[in-house]
Amino acid sequence: MRIVGREQKLLVILTVWAGPGDDEPRRKSTMSRANGKWAVACFLAAAIAAPASAVDLRAADSFASVTDRAERSRALFAEAGKVIQHPRCLNCHPVGERPTQGTDMHPHSPLVVRGSDDKGAIGMRCTTCHQDANFEPSGVPGHPLWHVAPKSMAWQQRSLKQICEQVKDPRRNGGKTLAQIQEHMAHDTLVGWAWRPGGTREPAPGTQEQFGALIAAWIESGAACPR
Amino acid sequence: MPVSLNVNGQSREIDVDPATPLLWVLREDLGLTGTKYGCGIAQCGACTVHLDGEPLRSCSAPVRVAAGRKVTTIEGVSSRAAKAVQKAWVELDVVQCGYCQSGQIMSATALLEKKPKPSDVDIDHAMSGNICRCATYHRIRAAIHAASKQLSA
After folding, report:
1. Which of A11, A95, A162, A181 has the most CB atoms in a 10 Å sphere around its CB?
2. B69 touches A at CB < 8 Å
3. Hey, are the CB atoms on B127 and A113 less than 8 Å from each other?
4. How far is A163 from chain B (nearest CA, A)?
5. Closest chain B residue to A115, measured at CA
6. Does residue A137 form part of some domain?
7. What tens digit of pLDDT does each residue of A139-175 get?
8. Same domain, A151 and A193
């Protein structure tokens, strides 16, 4: 796991804080205080270096109390929307030519574009840098089919209502039926990357299994879109 | 464990952890030091090689992805496009310190092999992953255009 930038500086500060001062005499009580400071420093360092923990997703059956079928359906999709509109997903569903990256969704560095086949420009393909799996020595994420979602599946700068309508539209969702959409959301491994992004990247909320169950329940309740 | 590679036309078998970045296998196990380490995080392009003719940041690729495929480094690149690039680089005196230039040449060659008459936008898109601290960018762009003219002459 790569520790970079801000994390590096914080770890140096913690190390200096926990270490002995030049003028501290070595007495038993000092050693106890030093050990205590190291324990705190180690705990904080682990917290800093650990991947950010994800938000939970509500279980699909927890929406059973919403008795109105259409309202329940909308609520289920809104919960699934926590995944759909998470940066891990939105970064590769841009509206223009360029994907974004990071939790703050800044433009991908270096400059990359989708190209004619959503797999990069001539001379700078996605596979120039991204390989078939996350590569920890460089911190670059990967998957065998790393690419940008087609323009028809742009999710950035779209409301959840608009995304819902696109997901349901076979003309814009790759010709999929709702059952195929559920299969895709629940089992596709590139979708699944969002929960295993590597490094210190924040995963999408919940698990792919929970997400798939929400989508299944949304479909079963009539696949209503948010208002 | 043994990994079989084809590097610059030569078959090589190297006993190495398959997860080792290709860059270090090239430099340390094969002695091909023309490919440079600049950042290790696929941000500078100094480590660029070709894998089956496509550019690859070797710092960001485990050596196992190269198994059974053709790796070309700066030492071995010899296509018509590569020769045109090298000629243009010399004629326009592109190089200053030289550290980034292996990667620049590999990326420029890959672009011209696929698109012999690139536009400035094509050059932007193909070359944006290669950084030059000496800022020879204007000459790199001019040299790519010069190499392109030579290829169509």
Report:
1. A181
2. no
3. no
4. 29
5. B125
6. yes
7. 999 999 999 999 999 999 999 999 999 999 999 999 9
8. yes
